[in-house]
Amino acid sequence: GVIFQYPDINKSPRWQRGKIARALAGKLAIAAKVDAYTGRFIGDKLVEDLRKRIEEIKKLYAKPPPRKEAPPQKPKLRKEGKEKRREKRR
């Protein structure tokens, strides 16, 4: 939920949102690890890398994927009940 509030994800078409969100999550994980283990600040480099990746995603996936067709529906099988069993006996 919180990651999807990021403006670049929120404003993107639905078929690009998941890809951008995964890229952002990866950069957030890297930032957290670097901060925890080294204490260095690498935020500027990560933001630059993220911007490049977002542009790459927008170029690669500019058009929506083709829609899948729904499988043909089969007629419902009617289960036999008490009434049907009585008719069979007659």
TrEMBL record:
SUPFAM superfamilies: Nop domain. InterPro entries: Nop_C, Nop_dom, Nop_dom_sf. It comes from the Archaea. Gene3D superfamilies: Nop domain. This is C/D box methylation guide ribonucleoprotein complex aNOP56 subunit. Residues 1-59 form the Nop domain. Pfam families: Nop. GO terms for cellular component: ribonucleoprotein complex. Keywords: Ribonucleoprotein.
